[in-house]
Amino acid sequence: MPRGGKRGHKGRGKQFSNPEEIDRQMKAQKELEENPNAEKVDSADSEDESSSEDENESRKKCGVEGLIEIENPNRMSQKSKKVAELDVSAPRELSRREREEIEKQKSKERYMKLHLEGKTEQARADLARLAIIKKQREDAAKKRDDLKKDKDTDESKAKR
């Protein structure tokens, strides 16, 4: 047999059916087989009773919850809201992250607007750098023109 196959749950206790529970289930099944109409009537009555019980207790208590009363102020009860009760028109409060992201976008837009107007330090530095580069290019262009003129004059003298 290969290793690593399915193994039993060693620590888990075995579950045995309660004999009283088995008897009760068998009786209910026999009654259902004998009188299927009787069960439908009983279930309709039980539905009315269960709906009134549901109104008293908003949710069904599971396990030990029914035995122990819990008064935890931090625990939120999950109540379902009806569509008519929901207020869609009311503005939803933004989370901290959403607020911070919106602020970040607005500050970025403000900065870009000032940057385009040339009012930020970075924009001033960029404009100064551009002015220097522009001046250097103009000087280089003048120098080239002067050299070209000198060359042309030298060639014209050489031709004569």
Summarize the structure.
The protein has helices at residues 19-34, 36-56, 96-117, 121-159.
Present the secondary structure layout.
Elements: H1 19-34, H2 36-56, H3 96-117, H4 121-159
Helix pairs in contact: 1-2
Defining key terms:
4 helices; 160 residues; mainly alpha
Description:
With 160 residues, this protein is an all-alpha fold. It has 4 helices and no strands. The chain has helices spanning 19-34, 36-56, 96-117, 121-159. The chain is elongated. The mean pLDDT is 79.
Biggest sheet: strands, sense, closure? none
Quaternary structure type: single chain
Classify the beta-strand content into a percent band: under 5%
Shape: elongated
For the secondary structure, the number of strands is 0
String of helices and strands: HHHH
Low-confidence stretches: none
- What percentage of residues falls in helices of 4 or more residues? 55-70%
Rg to the nearest angstrom? 44 Å
Kindly name the structural category. Answer: mainly alpha
Q: Count of helical segments?
A: 4
Roughly how many Å apart are the termini?
A: 111 Å
Mean pLDDT: 79
